[in-house]
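User: Need the bound-state model for magnesium ion:
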Amino acid sequence: LTEVLEHEQDLPSETPDGHAMALMVNTGLAVDAVASLKPRIGGVGLYRTEVPFMITERFPGEQEQTRLYREQLESFAPLPVVMRTLDIGGDKDLPYFPIDEANPFLGWRGIRVTLDHPEVLMVQLRAMLRASQDLDNLQILLPMITNVDEVDDALRLLDRARAELAEEGVAVPRPRVGVMIEVPATLYQLGALAERVDFFSVGSNDLTQYLLAVDRNNPRVADLYDACHPAVLVALARLAEEAAALGMPTSVCGELAGDPAGALLLMGMGFEVLSMNAPSLPRVRAAIRRVPLADAQALVAETLRLGSPAEVRGLLNRRLEAWQ
Ligand code: PEP
Ligand code: MG
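Assistant: Bound-state model below.
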């Protein structure tokens, strides 16, 4: 089977009835290994900038960050690279920036940290913009957005960074900017968010954690953590519908997108862009190539009628087997 999947990797990620899906990769380190996938993907759907920050001894300076980001952008140009601003806090601590809190996942995390430390965000934004010079494939993604003021503040800083660079003789166009849909509150503010940004990216890992109130890393409650919980699926299906009505390009970059059954559900809901870790690509592509869009849509309808995560998993497993 592995051989078959490998052979399929150069074929389009398209359903038997001709519905094309865009598959993208999530990156952090090891740009070389992933850049070889370039002919088979639509770009980088999520570059987690905190990953390189975790292996340094202090915050990397503007020059060092520019070099890192340039490497990503150049490796994949002209394909888009979605760079997420620093998402530390929660489970991701930097040794040189310890955060000690009783409830880290509900605490100082992502955009909350970087807006409280605009000097950190400014260096990062300047480096991203600098790195994008003459390439034009940078997109910027804001993590852990809870309300629109955070978006406005971040956009102001982005404009300031661009103005500063212009004064220094580095003129770069305004990149497309998106927000992570991962705090449940954003599900109810899609219209206001859509007025401010160019795209949504769904973080199904955190959306699941916060909708179910289950710490994604706590083994004691690991049984309860399931992105196929009916509540999560209903939320995702409504989100796909509302985002489409708003005309907002919306991708999914959480683990659900890299799970073949999850990818089929997302496709059936109407998401057209899925971003995943590179090793998940072959199986997801193979699933898409075997299942007509109408069948995926019917599967979503059937799934949404089920009451428990176990029932959903049972149905998905039976269908996946039948489709192999
Ligand atoms: C997510 O929350 O689904 C996501 C993609 O971001 P991270 O896993 O880095 O929190
Ligand atoms: Mg997240």
